[in-house]
Design brief:
The chain has 128 residues and is mainly β. It contains no helices and 13 strands. The strands form three sheets. Strands 2, 4, 5, 6, 9, 12 and 13 form a seven-stranded mixed sheet that branches. Strands 1-3-8-7 form a four-stranded antiparallel sheet, with no helix packed on it. It has a two-stranded antiparallel ribbon with strand order 10-11.
């Protein structure tokens, strides 16, 4: 499966962005999908994910109640809706996929090592 994240840009604090991650080659129903983000000099960190099994979702604490992950099967696309953005959300955002049934275990998101397929990153900058 090929992934391509997009939708990044410059937004003021408190603003919103929606990042699409369309897939090609295979249907997203076959994968658990995650969003990671990375800032310069830091490791890639999980933000949110949606499991292949039952579409169960997970959010890291820092984005709960602000971000929403969803999947549109007709468009074969996963979305990350980001509201109430903060400067700390500034990062390059990546979508990733792996064939496992769940994307989190014991209330912890599976790490980037699990993910086999990655899209290119998209830069989100939150600044006034």
């Amino acid at each position: 499966v090929q992934l391509q994240a997009s939708g990044g840009g410059l937004v003021h604090p408190g603003g919103s962005l929606r990042l699409p991650c369309p897939a090609s080659g295979r249907t997203l129903d076959e994968y658990s999908i995650a969003w990671f983000r990375q800032t310069p000099g830091k490791e890639r960190k999980g933000v949110s994910c949606i499991s292949r099994r039952r579409g169960a979702t997970y959010y890291t604490d820092s984005v709960k109640d602000r971000f929403t992950v969803s999947k549109d099967n007709a468009e074969n696309t996963v979305f990350l809706q980001m509201n109430s953005l903060k400067p700390d959300d500034t990062a390059v955002y990546f979508c990733a996929a792996f064939s496992g049934p769940v994307c989190y275990v014991n209330n912890s998101m599976l790490g980037s090592d699990y993910y086999e397929y990655w899209g290119q990153g998209t830069l989100v900058t939150v600044s006034s």
